[in-house]
């Protein structure tokens, strides 16, 4: 697509990375500042009219609201921000698949701070997107080219 790409894992503070390396799941207090920083990146790119893809495990509805609306979305329960900072338009792609497929992929990943032992905590935290959120669900059981085509088609459809 020629869009700018960010991996949210690159923006975790050192404390979060250390916690995960020790096998301790992150909680909301750990994640919210990280998500706010990611929102700021998305806001900056949107302001400069740069189309952007962010790979991020936005596991909870609240986390997705923070990505859309920033810190104010935490208190308001709505992603919209008044005045000059309207909510970002984001299409969330929920990559859905059985735990064994995801575990196999995690085992192949080298040099990453999140150990396989934390996968269950991710499933425990997960709140799959639902209406009225703007999302698509894509099965991880499909071949990679099909997954990419499905995502690209949804993005281009707007």
TrEMBL record:
Keywords associated with the record: ATP-binding, Kinase, Nucleotide-binding, Transferase
Enzyme Commission code: 2.7.1.12
Entry's Gene Ontology molecular function annotations: ATP binding; gluconokinase activity
Keyword check for Transit peptide: no
Leader sequence residues: none
Gene Ontology BP terms: carbohydrate metabolic process
One term under GO cellular component: cytoplasm
SUPFAM superfamilies recorded: P-loop containing nucleoside triphosphate hydrolases
Gene3D superfamilies: P-loop containing nucleotide triphosphate hydrolases
Catalytic activity: D-gluconate + ATP = 6-phospho-D-gluconate + ADP + H(+)
Pathway: Carbohydrate acid metabolism; D-gluconate degradation
InterPro entries, A to Z: P-loop_NTPase (IPR027417), Therm_gnt_kin (IPR006001)
Family: Belongs to the gluconokinase GntK/GntV family.
PANTHER family noted in UniProt: GLUCONOKINASE-RELATED
NCBIfam families the UniProt entry points to: therm_gnt_kin (TIGR01313)
Protein name, as recorded: Gluconokinase
Origin organism lineage: Eukaryota, Metazoa, Chordata, Craniata, Vertebrata
Name of the coding gene: Idnk
């Amino acid at each position: 697509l020629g869009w700018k790409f960010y991996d949210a894992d690159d923006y975790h503070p050192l404390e979060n990375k250390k916690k995960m390396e020790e096998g301790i799941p992150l909680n909301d207090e750990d994640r919210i500042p990280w998500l706010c920083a990611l929102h700021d990146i998305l806001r900056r790119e949107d302001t400069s009219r740069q189309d952007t893809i962010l790979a991020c495990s936005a596991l909870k509805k609240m986390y997705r609201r923070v990505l859309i609306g920033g810190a104010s979305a935490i208190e308001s329960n709505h992603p919209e921000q008044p005045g000059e900072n309207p909510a970002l338009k984001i299409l969330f792609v929920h990559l859905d698949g059985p735990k064994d497929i995801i575990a196999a992929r995690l085992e192949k990943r080298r040099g990453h701070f999140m150990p396989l032992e934390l996968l269950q905590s991710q499933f425990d935290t997960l709140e799959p997107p639902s209406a009225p959120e703007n999302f698509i669900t894509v099965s991880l059981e499909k071949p990679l080219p099909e997954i990419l085509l499905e995502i690209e088609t949804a993005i281009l459809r707007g």
